[in-house]
C-alpha cells in the first residue's frame, strides 16, 4: 500500500512505540474506563463531583437501592475512581483525585464539541 505521508507517518509510529505504556498500565486504564462506562457508576461519579457523600445520600442523588449502590461503589473503589473514609459509623465517599474530575469534565466538554468530518 502506498502512503502519501510515509516519512511523517513512520516517525509518528516510532514515537507511538517509544511512548507506549506497559501492558499492565494499559490494562489498568481499560479497567478504569470499563468502570466508568456503566451508567449507574457514571451517575455516582457525577454525583460525587458535588462533594463527598455517604451511601444514603448517594442513593438519594442517583436512585436505586442501597445494596446496588454499595456494589457499584466497591467496583469504583477497586478501580481507584473513588476513595472512602470512615466518619463515625458512616463511610463517606469522594472522587479519588483531580484526575477523575478532569476525565468527567473532559467527557462533558467532548459532548459539546462539533464533529469534524473530511
Explained architecture:
The chain has 118 residues and is mainly alpha-helical. It has one domain (23-112): Winged helix-like DNA-binding domain superfamily/Winged helix DNA-binding domain (Arc Repressor Mutant, subunit A, Orthogonal Bundle), CATH 1.10.10. It is built from 6 helices and 3 strands. It has a 3-stranded antiparallel sheet. The chain is elongated, with a radius of gyration of 19 Å.
Layout of helices and strands:
Elements: H1 6-19, H2 23-36, H3 39-48, E1 53-54, H4 55-62, H5 66-78, E2 82-87, E3 90-95, H6 98-112
Antiparallel strand pairs: 1-3, 2-3
Low-confidence stretches: none
What structural category arises from helix and sheet content? mainly alpha
Helix content range = 55-70%
Order of helices and strands: HHHEHHEEH
Domains, number = 1
Q: Return Rg in Å.
A: 19 Å
Distance between the termini: 21 Å
CATH topological fold name: Arc Repressor Mutant, subunit A
Strand content: 5-15%
What count of helical segments does DSSP give?
6
Q: What is the level-2 CATH architecture name?
A: Orthogonal Bundle
Name given to the CATH homologous superfamily: Winged helix-like DNA-binding domain superfamily/Winged helix DNA-binding domain
Tell me the strand order in the biggest sheet. 1-3-2
Report the strand count: 3
Top CATH class: Mainly Alpha
Amino acid at each position: 500500500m502506498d502512503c502519501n505521508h510515509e516519512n511523517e507517518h513512520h516517525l509518528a509510529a516510532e514515537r507511538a512505540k517509544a511512548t507506549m505504556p506497559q501492558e499492565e498500565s494499559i490494562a489498568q486504564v481499560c479497567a478504569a474506563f470499563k468502570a466508568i462506562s456503566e451508567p449507574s457508576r457514571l451517575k455516582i461519579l457525577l454525583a460525587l463531583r458535588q462533594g463527598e457523600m455517604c451511601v444514603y445520600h448517594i442513593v438519594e442523588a442517583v436512585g436505586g437501592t442501597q445494596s446496588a449502590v454499595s456494589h457499584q461503589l466497591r467496583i469504583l473503589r477497586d478501580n481507584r475512581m473513588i476513595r472512602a473514609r470512615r466518619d463515625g459509623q458512616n463511610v463517606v465517599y469522594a472522587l479519588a483525585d483531580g484526575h477523575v474530575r478532569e476525565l468527567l469534565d473532559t467527557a462533558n466538554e467532548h459532548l459539546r464539541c462539533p464533529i469534524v468530518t473530511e
